[in-house]
Amino acid sequence: xxxxxxxxPLLWVPSGYFTMALTYVTLTSVSAIMFKNLGMxxxxxxxxxxxxxxxxxxxxxxxxxxxxxxxxxFFVICxxxxxxxxxxxxxLMMALPNGIFLLMLAFWVLSFVGATQDxxxxxxxxxxxxxxxxSLYCGIQSLSWNIGPIVASGGLVxxxxxxxxxxxxxxxxxxxxxxxxxxRVIFFIVGSATLALGVWHMRVMPDGQHASNxxxxxxGAWHILQDSFVTFFQKRDVWTMxxxxxxxxxxxxxxxxxxxxxxVDPIKQGGLGLSNELLGxxxxxxxxxxxxxxxLLGGIFVARRGLQPSLFIxxxxxxxxxxxxxLMSIYQPSSLVVIxxxxxxxxxxxxxxxxxxxxxLMQQLAPGKYTTTHYAFGTGLMGLCMMLTGVxxxxxxxxxxxxxxxxxxMIATIPSFLVTWFAPFHQKEDQIASSSLASEALA
Length: 443
Fold this sequence. Notes:
Elements: H1 13-37, H2 42-51, H3 54-57, H4 64-68, H5 72-93, H6 99-128, H7 131-167, H8 180-204, H9 218-232, H10 238-247, H11 250-256, H12 258-264, H13 276-305, H14 307-319, H15 323-331, H16 336-365, H17 371-400, H18 402-411, H19 414-421
Helix pairs in contact: 1-2, 1-6, 1-7, 1-8, 2-17, 5-6, 5-8, 7-8, 7-13, 10-16, 10-17, 10-19, 11-17, 11-18, 13-14, 13-16, 14-16, 14-19, 15-16, 15-18, 16-17, 17-18
């Protein structure tokens, strides 16, 4: 049973999901650019940033703890205050001896805090709004989350480059300790914004309700988690669906961290020699707008055609346009129009095709006793793939060079095609999982 719907969910739904995205993208994507700017090689920069995905991948394992204590709003406010202070602390420790080690330790802790924020924020949403209002605000929720990457990967990366060159008057083409000045400002901004949003949510966010079957103890939470695992692996053709969840975005995992590195690496090293400002505009603005438009059109395409006859087409959309990076690495274009179009094409079709992945998890993998939890297992497998591919992607790129690496990315599309071709469909096309977090103990 839902709590009474707040009179003005517009006061907290957009800001809540924007905060979730801002902290997630800063930790898992923007940090890779920062590591690169500070002088790390591609292998270490991609590896260190990818490790921060782990907490978001395994959050179903500790989600039930949020149900056991206080209110969901309490966890949202606490995590946002910790995140805000943590980013400010990260800014302060960057110039210390062993600053990178301390920074990674701080980010590792903050990633688990950020994952807990996601659990609690989703919990407030589904337990404070009735089903009709949830549907009404679903588009606003998604749009608000997607503004986060535009601000982080676009605005903040752009600002880091502008500060480095125009305010601190350092050479933008030289990576190293001089970049600390600019990135300290960025983390002060992220930390201050997160603290301000936490104070705002303290005033306007509803408490949220406990799930009706929330565990009363850690032992109870463990029992529910065990049962959710057992029932998950009892599903028909579960291993084929697990392979689909893990491998559908395999090539994207290899591309995600290396694409931006390719943009900013010098031309003599096989890159395109762009500045952080241009990277922020191309990736954080044009690229993310292309993802949003592609996602919208992909959803319309699946709604009209149906998922089963569309899935292989959607797999092609995700994987084949990756060839734009192979072509750019071969010809190293200097035209910003050509580079922007290459990124926008890849991002548009990624957004278009990824809709099929999420719908498949909802309609085929998730249905059952623990619908929401099993959906989280599916997205967790995807996150695990992104983490593992990210960890090794930089090292592979250094070994192969950009042209051969992007050729390898095209080869890595083959498992995606195979698991899509053999993906089982046991649920009726219109049988969409509808269980909510309010009816389960885990997120």
